[in-house]
Specification:
CATH superfamily: 2,3-Dihydroxybiphenyl 1,2-Dioxygenase, domain 1
Distance between the termini: 16 Å
Number of helices: 5
Order of helices and strands: EHEEEEHEEEEEHEHEEEEHEEE
Low-confidence stretches: none
CATH class: Alpha Beta
Length: 281
């Protein structure tokens, strides 16, 4: 995936807290199409290609159900290699009576569903970036009705066997308490606004339509959920080089954002207490 590789900074691993590991594993394998990369008693790493972990799910005895009107995960978004792959997924959902939402965002076409704990999931394919419409620094995005029949027709000859090998973590979309504070923080991490939207902002590196989405739809000033509430534990940003990462670290120090280092892994939190791990691969 062009924008989920060097020279861009992108989201790779999303870590979730869940109530029931086995129920979640069944959902993420049978409905979404992940494969298990690694499994422990209370945690599993999930993959599309058998090598790269895209999702971590963990169960602990003290975890409690998801709360509404808090900051945290709005959805994580799985980017498929082709529109035909999206058609195969849509057919799979229809055949298995999986209820989904959908949206044509001009730059992409997307399906939406929730896991057993209410964590939001987007599965999408991008339109070619040569077709994206830019007005200065902002890319045109919208939420329109998808052409489901066209998508199904494109995937008619593609059999669904789970997430295809080229699937990537395309972006993450967060509930935040304050858009201005979030913009300042993610700008320090190296992201630029590419689309303002009512109650939301979309930010990216390298003119992608977005690597990070954020909104205040849970309420301006929404509190962070307690540590034992299911939902987002953390997500990982992959930087293209140590130099780019070091610039982000210095920017975080300048704005006095929280920053810790554990065995070479840098960890920070945005102003809405969403935890982020910063790495170079």
């Amino acid at each position: 995936m062009k924008y989920q590789n060097k020279p861009y900074t992108f989201v790779e691993l999303v870590e979730l807290k869940v109530i029931n590991l086995e129920e979640s594993l069944n959902f993420y394998q049978e409905v979404v199409g992940f494969k298990v990369l690694e499994k422990q008693d209370n945690k599993a790493l999930l993959t599309a290609d058998g090598k790269t972990a895209l999702l971590s799910i963990e169960q602990r005895p003290d975890f409690e159900p998801k709360q509404q009107k808090t900051t945290g995960l709005y959805h994580f978004a799985l980017l498929l290699p082709t529109r035909a792959d999206l058609g195969a997924v849509l057919k799979h959902f229809i055949e298995n009576n999986i209820r989904v939402g959908a949206g044509d965002h001009l730059v992409s076409e997307a399906l939406y569903l929730n896991d057993p704990d209410g964590n939001g999931i987007e599965i999408y394919s991008d339109r070619p970036d040569t077709e994206w419409k830019w007005n200065g620094e902002h890319v045109a995005m919208d939420t329109l009705q998808i052409d489901a029949q066209s998508i199904l027709a494109e995937g008619a000859s593609t059999k669904w066997t789970g997430l295809p090998e080229g699937t990537a973590m395309g972006h993450i979309h967060l509930h935040v308490a304050d858009l201005a504070a979030a913009e300042k923080f993610y700008n320090a991490l190296g992201f630029e606004v590419v689309t303002p939207y009512p109650g939301a902002l979309f930010m990216a590196t390298g003119k992608y339509h977005h690597h990070i989405g954020m909104n205040t739809w849970a309420g301006v000033g929404a509190p962070a959920a307690a540590e034992n509430i299911v939902g987002l534990e953390a997500f990982t940003l992959v930087y293209p080089s140590k130099e780019v990462l070091n610039t982000a670290i210095e920017n975080l120090k300048t704005i006095e954002a929280p920053l810790t280092e554990e065995n070479g892994l840098f960890i920070t939190k945005d102003p809405s207490q969403n935890k982020i791990k910063l790495i170079v691969k």
